[in-house]
């Protein structure tokens, strides 16, 4: 029997740069301790108060089918949060609850693209982006965000790729680079979307992790609310990666169509998870700040440690839980450096090449180990890099 072309091709084939991650997992399974600074996974579990809310909801009977669009109270809470953070009038009709941001990325691309339509995304990119586009039958069109432009896309590069495309996917604060798009970049993006009649899919799952500057949602820019689909998630903001809960925010008619999709795919998100998410959002920004605090601390630690040397050059981390380092002074590629570091120091980081060609010659460090472990790993990474030059 044959597997469909669409599913077979979803991963694009060839090396995806994740071999190092697999190798580190194999070393751990074989008993070698490895400091893993690879995945965007918190080193703390979900707050017990959220788990208690989840437990109570399950015991209360929220274990049956839940409303497919999401619990009305949760949709209201998400809408209120977005309205408060962006100033854009937002109601329940603009919100569809999703089983995580990734499901939202898939749903929005399925909604925005017809088979064969071009879909723009920015390189470097979060690993699933091209597969998501291929998965819905779209044609991935990477737009390079160059290191010399601070890893932000230029209007000229966007325009050059946009002819005949149907969507543009952006992510700010950004994984893997940690950069935040400012007013200039977002204004240019809005201009290109208007000129080429593109849907803008705005992945904002790191919007509570901002260290420098202010996060601006492009949905708040003039004329953009009618063509922007925002992806949100509690994975990063509330350390709820395993609960699979997020949302899409967009124009009401598009949101209604996403309901049709969910009826035929996920059939909604478990009620007890949604009630826990409602509790988490109602707990307010203090809980979000508590979850973000370790990354803020470790980001300071990183900048301090790297300030004393000049072999590893950090991309200024404005937000998110990562720091990207330019390792080209060592003469190695990101992949070579990452593999040599894993062998010599038993520290696993992601090669920049895992996130596209624009990040070649870089590594991405996830700031996801306890402060003392993280600080020690960082100083060993620096010594290792210095030993290569
Ligand atoms: N978007 C970006 C940029 C991410 O880094 C991630 C996860 O790492 C996701 C989306 C998916 O998040 P979720 O757990 O909400 O599916």
Total domain count? 2
H/E series, N to C? HHEHHEHEHEHEHEEHEHHHEEHEEEH
- CATH topological fold name of the largest domain: Aspartate Aminotransferase, domain 2
| Distance between the first and last residues' Cα | 54 Å
Query: What is the CATH architecture descriptor of the largest domain?
Result: 3-Layer(aba) Sandwich
Strand proportion, as a percent range, falls in 5-15%
Task: Tell me the major beta sheet.
Answer: 7 strands, mixed
Which consecutive residue ranges, at least 5 long each, have pLDDT under 50? Answer: none
What does this protein structure show overall?
The structure is a single chain. The chain has 389 residues and is α/β, with parallel strands linked by helices. It folds into two domains: 5-45 and 288-387, Aspartate Aminotransferase, domain 1; 48-285, Aspartate Aminotransferase, domain 2 (3-Layer(aba) Sandwich), CATH 3.40.640.10. The protein is 42% helix and 14% strand. The chain has helices spanning 5-8, 19-29, 48-59, 72-86, 101-112, 129-135, 155-162, 183-196, 234-237, 252-263, 271-282, 285-306, 334-345, 371-387; strands at residues 35-36, 95-98, 118-123, 139-144, 165-171, 199-203, 228-233, 246-249, 313-314, 322-326, 347-348, 350-351, 362-366. A seven-stranded mixed sheet has the order 2-8-7-6-5-3-4, sandwiched between helices. The protein has a four-stranded antiparallel sheet with strand order 9-10-13-12. α13 (334-345) crosses α14 (371-387). It is globular and about 60 Å long. The mean pLDDT is 96. The site of pyridoxal-5'-phosphate has 13 residues, from α5.
């Amino acid at each position: 029997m044959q597997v469909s072309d669409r599913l077979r091709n979803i991963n694009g084939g060839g090396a995806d740069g994740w071999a190092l991650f697999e190798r580190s997992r194999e070393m751990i399974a074989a008993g070698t301790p490895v400091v893993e600074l690879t995945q965007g996974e918190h080193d703390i579990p979900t707050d017990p108060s959220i788990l208690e809310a989840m437990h109570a909801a399950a015991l209360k009977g929220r274990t049956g089918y839940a409303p497919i669009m999401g619990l009305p109270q949760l949709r209201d809470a998400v809408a209120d949060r977005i309205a408060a953070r962006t100033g854009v009038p937002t109601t329940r009709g603009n919100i569809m609850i999703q089983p995580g941001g990734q499901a939202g990325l898939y749903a929005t691309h399925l909604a925005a693209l017809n088979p064969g339509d071009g879909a723009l995304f920015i390189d470097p990119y979060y690993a699933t982006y091209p597969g998501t586009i291929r998965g819905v039958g779209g044609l991935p069109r990477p737009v390079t965000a160059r290191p010399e432009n601070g890893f932000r896309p230029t209007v000229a590069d966007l325009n050059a790729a946009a002819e005949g495309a149907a969507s543009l996917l952006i992510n700010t604060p950004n994984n893997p680079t940690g950069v935040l798009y400012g007013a200039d970049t977002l204004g240019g993006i809005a201009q290109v979307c208007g000129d080429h009649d593109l849907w803008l899919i705005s992945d904002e799952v790191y919007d509570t992790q901002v260290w420098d500057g202010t996060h601006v949602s492009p949905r708040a820019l003039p004329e953009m609310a009618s063509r922007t689909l925002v992806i949100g998630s509690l994975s990063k903001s509330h350390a709820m990666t395993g609960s699979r809960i997020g949302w899409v925010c967009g124009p009401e008619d598009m949101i209604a169509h996403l309901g049709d999709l969910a009826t035929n795919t996920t059939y909604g998100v478990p009620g007890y998870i949604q009630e826990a998410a409602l509790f988490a959002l109602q707990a307010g920004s203090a809980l979000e700040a508590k979850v973000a605090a370790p990354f803020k601390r470790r980001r300071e630690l990183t900048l301090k440690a790297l300030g004393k040397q000049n072999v590893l050059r950090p991309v200024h981390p404005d937000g998110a839980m990562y720091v990207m380092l330019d390792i080209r002074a060592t003469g190695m590629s990101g992949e070579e450096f990452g593999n040599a570091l894993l062998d010599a120091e038993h520290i696993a980081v992601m090669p920049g090449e895992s996130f596209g060609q624009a990040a070649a010659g870089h590594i991405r460090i996830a700031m996801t180990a306890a402060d003392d472990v993280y600080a020690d790993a960082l100083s060993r990474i620096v010594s290792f890099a210095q030993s290569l030059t």
